[in-house]
Design a protein that fits this description.
The chain is an alpha/beta fold. The protein is built from 9 helices and 11 strands. α4 packs parallel to α9.
Length: about 230
Amino acid sequence: MSSFEDLGFSKVDIDRERRTGFPEVIYGEGKTFEQISQIMGKLIESHGKVMVTRLSEEKAALLLKKFPSARYDAASRILLFGSASHQYQGEVMVICAGTSDLPVVEEAAITAEWMGCKVKRLYDVGVAGIDRLLAYREEITNASVLIVVAGMEGALPSVVGGLVRRPVIAVPTSVGYGAHLQGLTPLLGMLTSCASGMSVVNIDNGFGAAYQAALILQLVSEEVNHEGTLS
């Protein structure tokens, strides 16, 4: 049996969930409605679920007519069909510096939820008003994995990294003024952070951050299942 379905314009990786724990996700930008529709059909047939990222409202409206059980979130530009059949141990907290970062935050949060993670959101706690962040210090330190989204100078992940003993996944956004360079400034700031235990994904890549967080909780859950309790 082949591990992929050849549609001519796309080779749909129907074996990916077995290999990695998660099925193939469709990147919506640059694909036509017809192409996305055919790929969705194959993934639903194989897995009973599918996610489409970076999908315009116009394409989403057409897909919802064909797949009425699907649901679309305009803020994150994600379309979902089906849901995770499990929930991992632990909690992912998604934190953002400002309201302008919400599209990336919601991409991360919705992706993590669809992959089986319990997610908590914390909005608008950037370093320009540090008391807003510190007011939630106990909740922040209780999270299993933290996804921290920030634009401008990108300082928030470093601050969070200095407060917790858990993995921090930093996401730079393309939100900011001229010298921000469409996200390059916070990206470089996060890459050169002195806070230990922090990893960085690409600019505006909420999906990639959520996928990494889900893999971390997947590993934790596997250890719990194998050993009964965490050591």
